[in-house]
Design brief:
With 207 residues, the chain is of the alpha/beta class. It has one domain (2-206): Rossmann fold (3-Layer(aba) Sandwich). 57% of the residues lie in helices and 12% in strands. The chain has helices at 13-23, 39-49, 54-78, 89-99, 107-115, 132-138, 151-167, 181-206, and strands at 2-6, 30-33, 83-86, 124-129, 172-176. The chain has a 5-stranded parallel beta sheet with strand order 2-3-1-4-5, sandwiched between helices. Helix 2 packs antiparallel against helix 3, helix 3 runs antiparallel to helix 4 (89-99) and helix 4 (89-99) crosses helix 7 (151-167). The longest helix is centred in the last third of the chain and has 26 residues, at 181-206. The protein is globular, with a radius of gyration of 17 Å. The chain starts with a strand and ends with a helix. The structure holds adenosine-5'-diphosphate (ADP) and thymidine-5'-diphosphate. Belongs to the thymidylate kinase family. Its EC number is 2.7.4.9. GO terms for molecular function: ATP binding; dTMP kinase activity. ATP binds at residues 7-14.
């Protein structure tokens, strides 16, 4: 089963991601993230640092996703593992929708087409929702940082996340990221266990 954690920078993803690995240790989960730990992930981080061409940067994120699926996600799912990824395809759909605006007509349709036919849709996505001001305060960014950390960018990213939820509500669990970490962890852990049990029941009924 593939679970992803999404939210704007500073929403608490990494904190939850690490804690979930422990809280769900009975599933022996594979803990992973995007951009990933491959050389392509390094190229992505360099593209961000050097503010590379937005199309080039977007395609590097897509290449990182392909490498992530091949090297981590597919093998782990094939072995029946629970996979938990800190950021995944929805980050591309919301962040690159902003960075490609005005460069590619209808960026979301283009991004969906680029992933179509080979990506893996998560079974559950936990979306941490916090006001942009709170996220910026937490990360100590005043909103003028790299283009992903600017207030107007994060506000649009947040809006685009909510549109993805409206399109596919059954895949998402939205958690208030301003709650205490232990409360968020409890809600998230229960959501994963519930979805896992649901899927097991479905598999039994289909036999
Ligand atoms: N639920 C929470 N309440 C208050 N502060 C939090 C919470 N979760 C994370 N933080 C703090 O906010 C900052 C960003 O958290 P982090 O998990 O790195 O977010 P992200 O990975 O989404 O950027 C860190 O300093 C972290 O300690
Ligand atoms: C995975 C992914 C991340 N990003 C952005 C979100 C982050 O601001 C930046 C780096 O991701 P990350 O290393 O997760 O930073 P953070 O821990 O601050 O969230 O890349 C995209 O623009 N597209 C993507 O597909």
């Amino acid at each position: 089963m593939l679970v992803t954690i999404e939210g704007i920078d500073g929403s608490g993803k990494s904190t939850l991601h690490q804690a979930l690995g422990t809280a769900l240790a009975d599933f022996s989960p594979v803990i992973t993230r995007e951009p990933g730990s491959t050389w392509i992930g390094d190229a992505v981080r360099r593209a961000i640092r050097e503010q590379a061409d937005p199309v080039a940067e977007a395609l590097l994120f897509v290449a990182d996703h392909a490498a992530h699926l091949r090297e981590i996600v597919r093998p782990a799912l094939a072995e029946g593992h629970l996979v938990i990824s800190d950021r995944y395809i929805d980050s591309r759909y919301v962040y690159q929708q902003v960075t490609l605006d005005g460069i590619i007509p209808d960026p979301l349709s283009w991004l969906r087409a680029v992933h179509s036919g080979w990506t893996i849709i998560p079974d559950l996505t936990i979306l941490l929702a916090v006001p942009v001001a709170v996220a910026l305060e937490r990360t100590g960014k005043r909103g003028e940082g790299e283009h992903f950390e600017q207030e107007h960018v994060l506000s649009r990213v947040q809006e685009y996340y909510m549109r993805l939820v409206e399109e596919d509500p059954s895949r998402f669990v939205i958690i208030d990221g301003t709650l205490p970490p232990e409360h968020i962890l409890r809600v998230a852990s229960e959501a994963v266990r519930f979805r896992h049990a649901e899927q097991r029941k479905k598999r039994k009924n289909n036999k």
